[in-house]
Amino acid sequence: MPKNVSLLPDAAMEFVTPAAKDRRTDTLWRIAMVAQRTGLSRATIYRLEAAGNFPNRQQISPRCVGWYGSDIEDFIADPKAFIQTVKRRSARR
Predict the structure, then answer these.
(1) For the chain, which domains are there?
(2) CA dist 22 to 5, 45, 70, Å?
(3) Strand ranges across the sheet with 64-68
(4) 13 and 6 Cβ atoms separated by less than 8 Å
(5) What is the pLDDT of residues 5-64, one digit of tens each?
(6) Is 57 helix (H, G, I), strand (E, B) or coil?
């Protein structure tokens, strides 16, 4: 088999991007950890999330939510870049 041949169909190749994260090894952080790591209050976290300027929470169980640790770390590293990335992703939909 030649080295440059892909086993994925062309349509599948467009969905594989460097921005796609492998969530299998990512941890979910509860609100207390998110608030501690970001230095933001609970109300500010929820307000920023509602405005689309903070990572989205994930439903863990009916009364429990969490945020992916890698998303929070990305936000902490560069909040403005994170917000622009989120806005670009939502504009494509």
Answers:
(1) 23-92 (1.10.1660)
(2) 24, 24, 10
(3) 28-29, 64-68, 58-61
(4) yes
(5) 445 444 443 434 446 778 889 999 999 999 999 999 999 999 999 999 999 999 999 999
(6) coil
Q: Count Cα neighbours of 48 within 13 Å in the Cβ-side half-sphere.
A: 21
Which structure tokens are listed for 51?
């405005």
Q: How far is 10 from 25, CA to CA, in rounded Å?
A: 28
**E strands, the chain, in order:** 28-29, 58-61, 64-68
The answer to whether 75 and 82 have CB atoms below 8 angstroms apart is yes
Question: Rounded to an integer, what distance in angstroms lies between the CA atom of residue 38 and that of residue 73?
Answer: 9
